Amino acid sequence: MDYSAILNALNNASLFELHRLSQAIYRQLEDPERINRVKRALSPGDEITYFESEENRLIAAVIVKLKRTRALVKNKHDGKLWNIPFHSINLEQQPVDLNTSQKLDRNSLKVGDQVCFKDKNGVELFGEVVKLNPKTAGVLVSTTKWRVAYSYLSLIIDGELAPDKQLLEGQVLSREISRD
After folding, report:
1. Cα angle for residues 18, 23, 26 (degrees, 5° grid)
2. Burial class of 26 by CB neighbour count within 10 A (0 to 12, 13 to 18, 19+)
3. Which positions ≥6 away from 89 have C-beta within 8 Å?
4. At a CB cut-off of 8 Å and minimum separation 6, what does 71 contact?
5. What's the burial of 125, exposed, middle or buried (CB within 10 Å: 0-12/13-18/19+)?
6. Which residues pair with 66 in a beta bridge?
7. d(CA 13, CA 19)
8. Contact predicate 156/114, CB 8 Å
9. Domains in the chain: ranges and CATH
10. Could you report the per-residue pLDDT of 18-40, keeping only the tens digit for each?
11. CA–CA distance, 62 with 101 (Å, rounded to integer)
């Protein structure tokens, strides 16, 4: 599903149209048959990822207990227990990153992303997104936290951090540079 195209279309929708759409989506999220399909695919001890909307990213967790409409999970990174709705569990391992050619916004960033921006003096700063606000991102640069409008941010793509499947393997054949 092309979430970027959907979000672009939603930007042109009226408030009433958005409300109608949110109600239709809510009914689908609360559909007992859909919930039961997810519950049947899970069992305590399963390792899962779920979408955490505040941080706009996937969280790795382990199922502790299945309840009627929620799952009790234990986060892998901090060990905290959370009751999460079944619809937030990423069973099909769908990608959650939104690839847009437009400027960055709250939907295209997630907590933990590496970004850069220029301060008022034109000095380029590099940091990590620590919070997503409606109009600004909280960015940690060294020990200082900045609030930066999304339009001033650029995403940093680090080849060292990329999954192995996206990296090309190779070797240097010659270090000599031709000076013709």
Report:
1. 120
2. exposed
3. 38, 42, 48, 49, 50, 71
4. 42, 63, 64, 65, 83, 84, 86, 89
5. middle
6. 71
7. 10
8. yes
9. 3-88 (2.30.30.140), 106-161 (2.30.30.140)
10. 999 999 999 999 999 999 999 99
11. 35
Compute and round to an integer the Cα radius of gyration of the chain: 21
Q: Tokens 């190779």 belong to which residue?
A: 170
**Residue 80 contacts residue 122 (beta carbons within 8 Å):** no
Say if residues 135 and 90 touch (Cβ distance below 8 Å). no
pLDDT digits (tens, 9 = 90+) for 52-104: 888 878 999 999 999 998 999 999 989 999 999 999 999 988 776 665 555 77
- The reply to whether the predicted model has a pTM over 0.70 is no
CA distance 56 to 96: 8
Please state, rounded to an integer, the average pLDDT across all residues of the chain. 83
Residue 85, pLDDT score: 94
Residues in the chain: 180
Backbone angles phi, psi at 18, to 5 degrees: -65, -40
Angle at 77 between CA 105 and CA 128, to 5 degrees: 35
Instruction: Report the distance separating Cα 31 and Cα 19, nearest Å.
Output: 19
Cα 61 from Cα 81, distance rounded (Å):
9
Q: Which two tokens stand for residue 136?
A: 């600004």
Q: Which two tokens stand for residue 144?
A: 């200082």
Listed in sequence order, the residues at least 6 apart from 40 whose beta carbon sits closer than 8 Å to its beta carbon are none
